[in-house]
């Protein structure tokens, strides 16, 4: 059942708008994470490089998929970490495994994003010389 923070049942458009408010609150929470801000700064640098090198539509598509993929996984990683912290304050091997696997997923996609960026930008950089 979809409820607002006061425990009242949200219906119709109200329910729709509550979902946006909760999503924006989630972005506010993930913004507090240093890794998210690092990825956002890296994304800004990549976008600036894309503008400088006048990327094609297809190249922009790949770059944007990589940027939003990393940012989304970082948000999911944060959600998993917070859920695990809610469940247990004790050090537990399964809690550690859940956090490590979530962080590993971010790392894997970040490596893919770096590879895609290298494939797109390296020839353009060499073309400057």
Short description:
This protein has 4 helices and no strands. It is an all-alpha fold and 129 residues long.
H/E topology pattern: HHHH
Number of helices: 4
Major beta sheet summary: none
The tally of beta strands, per DSSP, is: 0
Q: In terms of per-residue confidence, which ranges show pLDDT below 50 for 5 or more consecutive residues?
A: none
Strand content range: under 5%
How would you describe the overall organization of this protein?
- The chain is an all-alpha fold and 129 residues long.
- It is built from four helices and no strands.
- The protein has helices spanning 12-31, 34-52, 57-87, 93-126.
- The radius of gyration is 19 Å and the shape is flat.
Write the layout of secondary structure elements.
Elements: H1 12-31, H2 34-52, H3 57-87, H4 93-126
Helix pairs in contact: 2-3, 3-4
